[in-house]
Amino acid sequence: MFLFATLAETTQYVNFNALMGENSEIAFSVFGLPIRWYALAYLAGIFLGYWYLLKLIAQPGAPMARRHADDMIFYAMLGIILGGRIGYVLFYNLEAYIREPLAVFRLWDGGMSLHGGVIGVLVAIWYVTRREKLNFLRFCDYIACTIPFGLFLGRAANFVNGELWGRTTDVPWAIIFPDSGTMMPRHPSQLYEAGLEGLLMMAILAFLFWRTDARYKPGFLVGMASVIYGFSRFFVEFFREPDVQRQWVVDATGLSMGQWLTVPMIVIGLWLVATAKRRRQRVEPIAGPDAVA
User: Fold this and answer.
1) Residue 12 contacts by C-beta under 8 Å, 6 or more apart in sequence?
2) Measured distance CA(194)–CA(70) in Å, rounded
3) Cα 141 from Cα 211, distance rounded (Å)
4) Within a domain: 188
5) Which residues pair with 124 in a beta bridge?
6) Strand pairing category for 175-176 and 14-15
7) Residue 15 β-bridge partners
8) In a domain, 116, yes or no
9) How many Å from the N-terminal Cα to the C-terminal Cα in the chain?
10) Are 262 and 270 in contact (CB under 8 A)?
11) CA 194 – CA 102 distance, rounded (Å)
12) Which positions in this protein are listed as binding a 1,2-diacyl-sn-glycero-3-phospho-(1'-sn-glycerol) (predicted)?
């Protein structure tokens, strides 16, 4: 908000490079190896989510114990990385990777899909709950409450990197992103997403978990997370510059690839929320004292 207020007081748009500096994507170097903000955001999001998950499962009626949470962090990391990368390849840039298949392994070049990451995490949850004979939907509910940490930090890192910029605009808080190829002011859409997908979702899910009985309705919290993310992403995509390699989707349908990918999330999320009450069950705590961090 301070950034927006400052920009609104001036008639000159801020240049991103002047604001963040050159090579803003690099946080620091270790023995000459550059450590990028995006990688730090991923790690911080995962470990903050793990810390919060331990707080959640310490409450009565938790669907998992501490040992399950410890297992989940490993499989979640695999799901995020593999699912995010494969999702990006399939959804956004398949043609380029068909031409150069080995580029799939160059993670340092960027290219991750949140939708693919979600699928990867769901596969990880399915594996852990099947192996341990736990309730899949209730497990998803608790994991969903931790996701906003990663979403917020990831979108903040997108902004620091000067990537995934918005469409051209004349709003007072617009920013010029030189890497976009033009010197036209654009929406800082990364910050819009950080606020809606991160902070707003975090606040709503925290209220539902701590102040209501939502956690005893299997599928309710993960359904709400899916709906909030879906509508937030769908809305912000109107301000975000479409991926150039998928511009044909916008030209053909009027909606971006990101918007089309959120439609199933919204539909499934609404169904989970609407049917959660009938799945309510008498929940016995399984976490016990070992759930406390």
Assistant:
1) none
2) 27
3) 15
4) yes
5) none
6) parallel
7) 176
8) yes
9) 34
10) no
11) 32
12) 155
Would 41 be classed as within a structural domain? yes
Token pair listed for 195: 């606020």
Give long-range contacts, CB 8 A cutoff, 24+ apart: 38-42: 38/110, 38/154, 38/157, 38/158, 38/161, 40/157, 41/150, 41/153, 41/154, 41/156, 41/157, 42/80, 42/150, 42/153, 42/154
In which element (H, E) is residue 72 found? helix 66-92
As for how many domains the chain has, the answer is 1
Residues 262, 247: Cα–Cα separation, whole Å: 17
Query: What is the value of pTM for the model shown?
Result: 0.86
Domain residues for the domain of 224 are 34-281
Within-domain flag for 15: no
Q: Which amino acid is at 146?
A: T
Give the separation between CA 38 and CA 91, rounded to whole angstroms: 21
Residue type, 65: A
User: Is residue 240 a known part of a binding site?
Assistant: no
Residue pLDDT tens, the chain, 293 long: 455 445 444 558 999 988 888 778 888 888 888 888 888 998 999 999 999 999 999 999 899 999 999 999 999 999 988 888 887 777 777 676 677 776 666 665 667 788 888 999 999 999 999 999 999 999 999 999 999 999 999 999 999 999 889 999 999 999 999 988 889 999 999 999 999 999 999 999 999 999 999 999 999 999 999 999 999 999 999 999 998 878 888 999 999 989 999 999 999 999 999 999 888 765 555 544 444 33
